[in-house]
């Protein structure tokens, strides 16, 4: 969190009792490193439950999802910049390459 705060205008705060939204970081033994993308409202789970989840880069990656960042390969304009080699992607991982819909994403007026 300090790395993100030091390099951006984003600030993290401790949750206050009446906070309408917060990020809950679950770590320990379990499965997966993941977070929902963007503010979900209420308690938002950021899951760090696998041996490789507690690396600094992984934690920052998942925090970036929690604050609203998608993967670059999911941008709606990605085909203008990259070629996805679909035969090299496992069927169960293809969802990671679905383009997000700008009508679904609240960009706060930014494009």
Describe what this molecule looks like in 3D:
- With 111 residues, this protein is of the alpha+beta class.
- It is built from 2 helices and 3 strands.
- Strands 1-3-2 form a 3-stranded mixed β-sheet, covered by helices on one side.
- Strand 2 and strand 3 form a beta hairpin.
- The protein is globular and about 45 Å long.
- The mean pLDDT is 87.
How are the elements arranged and paired?
Blueprint: H1 2-7, E1 21-27, E2 33-35, E3 42-48, H2 56-66
Parallel strand pairs: 1-3
Antiparallel strand pairs: 2-3
Distance from first to last alpha carbon: 25 Å
Kindly state the percentage of residues in helix: 10-25%
Give the count of structural domains. Answer: 2
Please work out how many helical segments DSSP would assign.
Answer: 2
Provide the structure class: alpha+beta
Number of strands: 3
Beta-strand content bin: 15-25%
Order of helices and strands: HEEEH
Oligomeric status of the shown chains?
single chain
Please state the CA-atom Rg, rounded to the nearest Å: 16 Å
| Cα shape | globular
Low-confidence stretches: none
Enumerate the strands of the largest sheet in spatial order, edge to edge or round the barrel: 1-3-2
Largest sheet: 3 strands, mixed
Mean pLDDT over all positions: 87
Active site: 62
Cofactor: Zn(2+)
Protein name: Peptidase M12A domain-containing protein
Binding site for Zn(2+): 61, 65, 71
Brief description of this entry?
The chain is of the alpha+beta class and 111 residues long.
Notable characteristics:
metalloprotease; 2 domains; 15% strand; 3 strands; 111 residues; 15% helix; Peptidase_Metallo; alpha+beta; Peptidase M12A domain-containing protein
């Amino acid at each position: 969190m300090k790395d993100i705060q030091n390099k951006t205008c984003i600030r993290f705060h401790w949750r206050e009792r009446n906070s309408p939204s917060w990020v809950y970081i679950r770590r320990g033994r379990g499965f997966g490193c993941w977070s929902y993308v963007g503010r979900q409202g209420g308690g938002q789970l950021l899951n760090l439950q696998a041996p490789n989840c507690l690396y600094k880069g992984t934690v920052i990656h998942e925090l970036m999802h929690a604050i609203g960042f998608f993967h670059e390969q999911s941008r709606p304009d990605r085909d203008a910049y990259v070629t996805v080699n679909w035969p090299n992607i496992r069927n169960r991982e293809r969802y990671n390459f679905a383009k997000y819909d700008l009508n679904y994403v609240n960009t706060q007026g930014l494009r």
